[in-house]
C-alpha cells in the first residue's frame, strides 16, 4: 500500500475555521453604509432558490444548501480529490430585536448574497416633562 502524505490533512480542516477563526463557508464582510449594515456573504455554486433567510428573536438566520453531482474520478471510478463542500450551511447574525422582516432587503447575484439591515436606532431617553398644576 502506498502512502500519500498530501492527503494527510485533507479531512482535518473540513468544516473547520481558518486562521482568523471564521468559517470556511459563507464568509461574510459587514460594512456600515448609508445608515445601514450591509452583509456580503459568499455563496459560490449556490442557487438563489436554495437560500432561506429568517428573522427571529433579533437574529438574522441564513441557511443555504449546495449539492454537487459532478465528481472527479480516475479511470477506475475512484474519487481522486474532493475539496468542494456539499451540504447545508448556516450563519446567524444578531441584528437587534427592533428590526422587522420588512426592514431587511436582500439580493443575490453571481454567488454573493447582499443583505441590507438598518442600524438599530438608539433608544430615546425620555425628557422630564413637568405636569402643570392648575
Automatic annotation (TrEMBL):
Pfam family name, one: HSP20
Top-level division of the source organism's lineage: Bacteria
User: Where do the SHSP domain residues begin and end?
Assistant: 16-134
SUPFAM superfamilies recorded = HSP20-like chaperones
Matching Gene3D superfamilies, A to Z?
2.60.40.790
Which InterPro entries did the record assign? Answer: A-crystallin/Hsp20_dom, HSP20-like_chaperone, Small_HSP
Family, similarity comment = Belongs to the small heat shock protein (HSP20) family.
Specify the protein name: Hsp20/alpha crystallin family protein
Upper lineage is: Bacteria, Bacillati, Bacillota, Erysipelotrichia, Erysipelotrichales
